[in-house]
Amino acid sequence: MKRSTSTPKKAPQFASAPAIHAPQLPYNLEQIRQRAEAFYAAHNGMIGMTLDDWLQAGRELKPKFKKQITNK
Fold this sequence. Notes:
elongated; 2 helices; mainly alpha
């Protein structure tokens, strides 16, 4: 059986649909995400700790974010 090597065509009703892109987190949320990942790695990816990791990262970084806001 021969396979087609051409790219599939879009259905006409979807030809003008906008592309969907992954959302970008605001800078401070990206920092929290990175810190939470560090906590996750520190306890060897223990399942069920994800929320705790996010909350701990937020508490740790909150003073830094307040300082950035008041310095503007």
